[in-house]
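User: Sequence in, structure out. Go.
Assistant: Echoing your sequence, followed by the structure tokens.
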Amino acid sequence: MDSLRGVAILLVVVLHAGESLRIAGAAIAGVDGFNLFLEPFRMPVLMFLSGILLPRSVAKTGREYFAGKVSMVAWPYVLWSLIILAASGDLRPGGVLQILYLAPTYLWYLWFILVFYALAYPLRRIPPLMASATGFAASLVLRDGSRPGMMAFLAAFFFLGAWCARQPRFVEQTLARRWVPAVGAVSAVAVGVFNVLNHDVLYRAEYAWGVLGGLGVVCWAFPRLRSNRVTAALEFVGRYSIVFYVAHLGPIMITLALADAAGLAGEWFMFPLLLVVAVGAPLGLAWMYSTREHLSVNLLFELPALKQRPRERTSPGRRAGA
């Protein structure tokens, strides 16, 4: 699960590096096509993975549950939203207030997760599959492209993950049928191609079959990966996904601004350079965070006063299941 989350987060980095070049007038056609193809899948997969850990989270007391979410999700969301607004020169009272109800920066994923967690605990006795079906149904009737419609669609995958976590044997037996990942791959490719061809498929329940197909493929494939240096690196990224998520865009924008000032924004090496800085800077922060020895770094990503965490390495997926 950590390696899959690591891949999803790295794809978000690729997306923002490509979009930054496009905004700067130096778009790379192949990168744009790649990002468009994967656009319907990135966030639903991340939501699904967060939902997988929900049953373990709601088993805690209410105090432990909400303290963990405030410490490990709400705190970095608010702190980094303020950092981003300050860096963009938009630290107005109205903009700061929007952090609470609108998510005015690219950290909207954390805001969505907070809303889902807030709903999940009081709804913990409702079957997750019912909550997922309700999300899909709501996204059908809500206006396409609206924030509520998008939230309902992603909530469906969040609660679907919680249901799958409670039915591991059923999921395993289903994916063991060879035709299931095959059909899933075909449906995922179809939806990805539709998106590349500018069909309106993003966060629409009418095309959820393709997203579910893609989810089935990765859930079938990733458990079959052999442990090696690559998977270990991906697992590290996945365990500290919040560091890479909140801290990657700043290095991209700084590097691109410097390159633009030097007249190099359109050079062939800019995209790989942006990837290097967008992964390298968060990687350094994640390493320092993992050592638990730098309080100033720890405070960027959690509020220790609410939740104490052990120094030793915890089980896979612990970051999203706080």
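User: And one key feature?
Assistant: The two ends are 15 Å apart (CA to CA).
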